[in-house]
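Quick one:
INPUT:
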């Protein structure tokens, strides 16, 4: 089953990760790749470089970043393939242990049968 894990750190920063943070995340990503769990992952740049696009009654609104509600901002994502939601939760706990803060939302992707949870 494929899941998307959406990472929300609860704050934004322009500070790059430390060498230790990069090494720890690299080790986790390497393990996930070796075990065939990780399909893809990436981080996202600061919201000041982005925009929100919405539509209501056929009218589009574009709001340039940065965005003030940082608790809802997505900082990165991963698509993983695991046998169950429990497996996705365990890998997500490991990820959050490495980053040390924030939350991740786990969502089953549309190609997986919902009854398999």
């Amino acid at each position: 089953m494929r899941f998307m894990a959406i990472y929300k750190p609860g704050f934004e920063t322009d500070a790059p990760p430390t060498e230790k943070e990069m090494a720890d995340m690299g080790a986790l990503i390497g393990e996930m790749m070796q075990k065939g769990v990780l399909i893809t992952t990436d981080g996202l740049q600061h919201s000041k470089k982005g925009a929100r696009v919405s539509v209501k009654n056929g009218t589009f609104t574009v709001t340039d970043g940065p965005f003030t509600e940082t608790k809802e901002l997505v900082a990165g994502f991963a698509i993983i393939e695991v046998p169950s939601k429990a497996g996705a939760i365990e890998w997500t706990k490991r990820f959050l242990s490495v980053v040390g803060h924030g939350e991740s939302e786990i969502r089953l992707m549309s190609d997986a049968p919902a009854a398999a949870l």
